[in-house]
User: What shape does this take?
Amino acid sequence: MTLRGILSILIALVMQAGSLQGALTATANITWTIGSIDAISISGNPGAFNITTAVAGSAPTSATDATTTYAVTTNNTARKITGMLGSALPSGVTLSVSLAAPAGATSAGTVNLTTAAASLVTGIATIASSGLSITYTFAATVSAAQATSQSNSVIYTIGP
Assistant: This one.
């Protein structure tokens, strides 16, 4: 076989290898959506609040619970967490809450809850954070009616 014949065979093999390689690839176009995300979760319920003592001459001793935490995720800016009671508390009874703020946000400190939404944490922006502490304080005046096993709910919301 001549050099010219060998070169022709090599060129043909190289061209065939190129066309085979093209047959082994394909392209897929993908589409996606990333929507607005505002999520909050609570680790659980606080323990029961029992007010059964007072120092003589003072209001009944309040009950505090700091065993629960919350997690928050948002891909938005200028978000806040609000809190409110599911229903009104009896006269002479208050429930306040304090939420630790995630990085870059600001806690409002201890806030007395009512059936109207109150700002608890402000300035939340693009964050995913968990294990943030919640402190509840339940208090009653001497004029609060005695009660057994009453309950209420605290509603937390994250949004603009």
Q: What stands out?
A: The chain has one domain: 38-159. Residues 49 and 140 are 11 Å apart (CA to CA).
